[in-house]
Amino acid sequence: MEIRAYFKYEKDRMNQNLSSETTTRVFLDRLKTELLSDLPGVDAHLLLAPEIRIQDLKTGQTPAHAIESAVLIVLYPFGGRLYTAVILRNEYDGAHSGQISLPGGKKEESDINFEHTALREAQEEIGIIPDDVEIIGQLSRFYVRPSNFIVYPFIAYLPYKPVFQPDAIEVQRVIEIDIFDAIRRDSIVHKILTFKNNIQVNAPGFLVGGEFMWGATAMIFSELMHVLERTTNSIEKTGLANQQF
Asked: Mean pLDDT over all residues of the chain?
């Protein structure tokens, strides 16, 4: 079977069908390689940055008192496609109340490292089983000013569609995303958001599950989008799309 039969490069070569385990393995291994090379970082974040964050991102300053945390982008196959999951947070007295977020949170003293933080939080918030997960790599460290968090985003692979168990206190609902359908350059939309004191912000983002995903989460996904583009370009360029398995 040819990989070409599964990697159906449409106009932007981002509409893959990942129904074959072999094809998926090729893709994940190449993704691992791309995550170990120079990451787009700020350049990717700026594409999805609200106007009020652009100058902060360009300066790259992170305060010494920032809180360290980690989040998890867990990829999994479903219906011959590659999905991930985000959460709609419950309303609470905090910077990200009612927003779309990745499962994750603050690093605890008991956490061995940031990878452990991301896996622990994903288990607590949506029921991901850490022992079933393969860590693929890590995106750029990212500072979130509204919550004063330094975020370490990890990408993982789960070989099956998880049975989500959302934490009732923190999670309003889990939203599943086809990453090659929802996370695309031509899927970026802009909204004018109104905050306290009628402050309005022009924010780019993605529409997922009927919700507007913007801010730090959208900026993290922007970097993932760039890395996915590099991955698919690399697979096509090296001729793996024609290789027989």
From this structure: 86
| pLDDT tens per residue across span 217-238 | 999 999 999 999 999 988 888 7
CATH number reported for the structural domain that contains residue 37 in this entry: 3.90.79.10
Spatial distance between the Cα atoms of 149 and 152, rounded to a whole number of angstroms? 10
* Helix, strand, coil share of the chain (percent; to 5): 35, 30, 35
Q: What is the pTM of this model?
A: 0.88
Q: What is the number of domains present in the chain?
A: 1
CA angle 196, 197, 198 (to 5 degrees): 85
207 found inside a domain: no
> Which residues are CB-contacts of 192 (< 8 A; sequence separation ≥ 6)?
200, 201, 202, 203
| pLDDT (0 to 100) of residue 92 | 60
What is the residue range of 85's domain? 3-181+215-235
